[in-house]
Design a protein that fits this description.
alpha/beta; six-stranded parallel beta sheet
């Protein structure tokens, strides 16, 4: 009897959008960053070095840079091969786009490329690159985390979805959240990191974190643990893979040294004498505390060792070329790539692959989220149009009157009323604004409720007006 063929699955952000809604789309994640900043959420994170309006200016101010990339102005950029390749890949991925109109259209990790290009254009500021990249990482991780709501998505996954995911021998994910482990009680391989695990430098269960704690070098803000997780964020998949592989090499090297210490102390001491003091400290710490984790293992090795069949769900083939490079190294017999709508012409794979319809999969698993149309009619008078203009002015990112009405009609009363109540209670506890700036900040706080739930703020203001009399 032939052994059963292994089946594995690799999940991307499309899974979170399917069950968590557009709150986890690129647009809403980036909008949350801007509104969080405008409400001073990041003041303590940046210890007062960067204001909310400055953060907004940075994001909106990089829009000309992204369009300059599209226009070919960085084609011959004086940079390393990784940056040059990233520029050409970005152009290829956006070949059908003539221009980015809004900051929220720019994919999350491409912001790191824009930031890198900005510092290359301003070499006098180059010493700020590392801190600026870290700041972007913090804000992106916090906005994806969405006040912890992302960790509740599994509650919307019904039994057929649970049984489907549990049927796989191995589950890999590019997402940072822990919904699939909560759903399946299985080990999940987080290829790009995990909100539930701190970065090595901050994690006292790792050698480096243990040392940092002893030396008072832990820097994390306890109110923002999600920002200090072990996530890999980079414009280059190649750089992510290299960072992960460097960790693996470090783990293997330290394990060999421990074995040498245990088998031949004299030889170990000779070797250790030639090591710089910082590395020697790490070696000594691991020898004394072998129970500590050496570093994060991002499990690319497990992906490269796969055999049998791999299903890919919720991933864009345009991004994460390093993932497909790992798949190429594997012994997989077949890859099934689930696509939304028209499948891509081809995948960057030489292994046998086929396309499947993701909409059909979700339908078969009873995974489609309910859609509503409440059928409310709104006036089309000049006075009404002024209200819609006001809603857009308050929302920072305007949408059309038709979009506002459609969005408002998609929110049933049982969902709308608690959110309206939350907004009105929030306004009640605020002090009377003493300036236009304070008033606008209060509106931004209301907008954040909408963005948290995946509702356009301008539509939420219409819903608030609609329900005002019921809650007054």
């Amino acid at each position: 009897m032939e052994p059963k063929q292994k089946k594995s699955v690799l999940l991307g952000n499309g899974v979170n959008i399917q069950f968590g809604g557009k709150a986890y789309s690129n647009r809403f994640i980036l909008s949350r960053i801007i509104f969080n900043a405008q409400c001073d959420k990041y003041d303590s994170l940046f210890e007062g070095t960067l204001s909310g309006s400055e953060i907004e200016q940075i994001f909106r101010g990089l829009l000309p840079t992204v369009n300059a990339v599209l226009d070919g102005k960085y084609d011959k950029v004086n940079a390393d091969d990784v940056v040059k390749r990233a520029v050409m890949e970005f152009k290829a991925q956006n070949a059908e786009r003539s221009k980015f109109e809004h900051y929220y259209e720019i994919p999350l990790e491409d912001w790191f490329l824009l930031l890198r290009l900005f510092f290359m254009d301003n070499p006098d500021l180059s010493d700020m690159w590392k801190a600026s990249k870290q700041g972007f990482e913090w804000m992106i991780l916090d906005a994806i985390y969405n006040a912890g709501k992302i960790q509740e998505i599994y509650q919307k996954m019904k039994k057929p979805v649970k049984h489907f995911f549990k049927s796989f021998d191995s589950i890999f994910t590019l997402n940072y959240d822990n919904n699939i482990e909560k759903l399946t009680n299985k080990t999940i391989y987080h290829l790009h990191g995990d909100y539930s695990v701190l970065a090595d430098s901050e994690n006292p269960e790792t050698v480096q974190g243990f040392l940092n704690k002893q030396n008072g070098k832990i820097v994390m803000n306890p109110d923002y643990l999600q920002c200090y997780c072990n996530a890999l964020l980079n414009f280059s998949g190649q750089n992510k893979y290299k960072e992960a592989q460097d960790k693996v090499k470090g783990i293997e090297a330290l394990q060999r040294l421990k074995q040498l210490h245990d088998s031949d102390v004299e030889k170990f001491e000779i070797m250790r004498a030639g090591v710089e003091s910082e590395k020697a400290q790490i070696i000594d710490t691991y020898i004394k505390h072998p129970e500590l984790k050496i570093a994060t293992d991002y499990h690319f090795g497990e992906l490269e060792k796969l055999s049998g069949e791999l299903h890919i769900i919720g991933l864009s083939p345009q991004n994460d070329s390093h993932i497909f490079a790992c798949i190429e190294k594997s012994s997989l017999d077949k890859v099934v790539f689930y696509s939304y709508g028209e499948p891509p012409k081809k995948l960057p794979l030489t292994k046998p692959y086929e396309f499947a319809d993701i909409k059909q999969l979700w339908k078969s698993l009873d995974a489609n989220q309910p859609q509503y149309n409440c059928g409310r009619k709104y006036p089309d008078s000049d006075e009404a149009k002024k209200f819609f203009e006001l809603f857009n002015a308050l929302s920072l990112d305007p949408i059309t009157k038709e979009e506002i009405e459609k969005e408002a009609n998609s929110i049933p009363e049982y969902m709308a009323l608690p959110l309206c109540k939350e907004a009105m209670n929030l306004i009640k506890v605020q002090t009377t604004p003493k300036s236009e700036e304070e008033l606008m900040k209060q509106f931004r706080m209301v907008s954040r409720i909408a963005l948290r739930e995946g509702i356009y703020p301008s539509a939420f203001y219409l819903i608030l007006i609609d329900n005002f009399s019921k809650l007054s």
